[in-house]
Amino acid sequence: MKTILIDLEVGNIGSVVNAVRRIGHEYEVLSEPPRNDNKFDRAIISGVGSFPFVMKKVRSKGWDDFILSHCEKRKPLLGICVGMQILSTFGYEDEECRGLDIIPGVVRLIKPVTEQSGLKLPHVGWNNVVVTEKYKNHFSIFDNQDFYFTHSYAFNCAQKQNELFRTYYGGDFCSGVVDANIIGVQFHPEKSSTVGHNFMKFFVEKF
Amino acid sequence: MLKTRIIPTLLWDGSSLVKGTKFDSWRRLGPVLPLLKIYLARHVDEVILLNIATNKRSTPINFEELSKFLSICDLPICFGGGINSLEQIDRLMDLGVDKISINTGLFRNKYLLRDCARKYGTQFVVVSIDVKKDDSGEHICFSENGSKNENKSATDWAIEVEQNGAGEILLTSIENDGMFSGYDLELVNKISNLVSIPVIASGGAKTCRDFEAGLIAGAHALAAASCFQFTELTPKEVKKYLKDQGYCMRR
Per-residue confidence at B94, pLDDT binned at 50, 70, 90? Predict the structure, then answer.
């Protein structure tokens, strides 16, 4: 079974391809939803760019319908960075923009916190990821590990049960979300060295 | 807590590593790949790869070689040098570049930064500011690998690029580059205090104390080329030293 790597034609698809190749897992890069998804059992959506810009791409290519159907079938989905953020209900980057509403919540600038502390934005670099209590057992190998971040906006979950990871930058923010077979991470596992490689491997092989 | 990044810079002429002093007198050092593999094995935090126009003309990007480096790089890699169009940037993205660094291209096309930030997001673009002091001691921007005076103060330019969508600034002192004299701390301090985006200090670092001084001056991250290639200092030692001084460093 293969993993679909969703190519939005604005994302850092090259990094994700290289990472999946290094794992040795079978994949296919698609810039349009497949007519038949029987040979694919999971999908990764990775994005750089603004929330509204990425959502526009997602909708124009019909990826929104595909992703919703993929999740309904309980097939695993990994959203990375903006790929995670578009799983939300609304995003507030540049303008108010509807997300896919797969995991309830809103995406906002982390500025209110960092403004007080004089910290720089975007939040760039390696930062510590802590697994929330509910998921400590299942994700223990990633608990308290450093992953690479580069973003200015963060997911605010409407339901605590969807918060998977938290990270501190001037204040706590949600760095990972989960709901059954859907997982979203704010950091870039494809660029997070060994621990990132392990996370990607975990998703394509075990999740 | 966010960790301080130590970033080795690899200067490349399309086929070989090169070293210069003050952006001049370039020497060829051998292939990039072995050194890149060493840095990856030594857990550096990020890598900067700069395509250097050693003959002062712009060097075309060797995409084929670049894709080999990217296929093994499981760390963020910032690529710069000779970028002047969205088409090149699209191609770099497809290969797996995580960030791009632009200097000259922004002076030649005043919409490039805005267009790039709009398409890829601000965190993708690192604006590279290469600086020399003029006769009055003011820090002035240079383009074209240090050969062209853009008659723009570094402070004005830093403010302008931040407003137009730069995600980070790679700030290099041309006069200190390759000279093992430490960073230009006055420059680092001036620019770091002026902008709310991360500033990566570059040019001149030699000792652990030089790296620390860069942080005290306000740098968000620290880049270095010559000291990791020509002295016995390793990124690991720098990280250990900074950790002992109380800075948060990645293991």
Answer: confident
For B32-68, what is each residue's pLDDT tens digit? 999 999 999 887 999 999 998 766 566 688 899 999 9
Share of chain B above pLDDT 70, in %: 97
Q: Is A133 a catalytic residue?
A: no
What residues contact residue A75 under an 8 Å CB cut-off, 6+ apart?
Answer: A40, A41, A42, A43, A181
* Tokens matching residue A46: 């990775």
Asked if A196 contacts A188 with a C-beta cutoff of 8 angstroms, the reply is yes
Nearest by CB to A123, which of B2, B72, B250?
B2
Among B residues 127-156, those touching chain A with beta carbons less than 8 Å apart:
none
pLDDT of residue B56: 57
Q: Is B250 touching A (CB cutoff 8 A)?
A: yes
Average pLDDT value for residue range B130-149:
94
Annotated catalytic, A188? yes
The answer to whether the beta carbons of residues B98 and B89 sit under 8 Å apart is no
Name the more confident of B212 and A49: B212
Q: How many CB pairs under 8 A join A and B?
A: 112
- The 3-state secondary structure of chain B, one letter per residue: CCCEEEEEEEEECCCCEEEEECCEEEEEEECHHHHHHHHHHCCCCCEEEEECCCCCCCCCCCHHHHHHHHHHCCCCEEEECCCCCHHHHHHHHHHCCCEEEECHHHHHCCCHHHHHHHHHCHHHEEEEEEEEECCCCCEEEEECCCCEEEEEEHHHHHHHHHHHCCCEEEEEECCCCCCCCCCCHHHHHHHHHHCCCCEEEECCCCCHHHHHHHHHCCCCEEEECHHHHHCCCCHHHHHHHHHHCCCCECC
pLDDT tens sequence across B185-239? 999 999 999 999 999 999 999 999 999 999 999 999 999 998 888 888 999 999 9
A97 is catalytic: no
Q: State the complex-level ipTM.
A: 0.93
Active-site residue (options: A71, A81, A157, A174) = A81
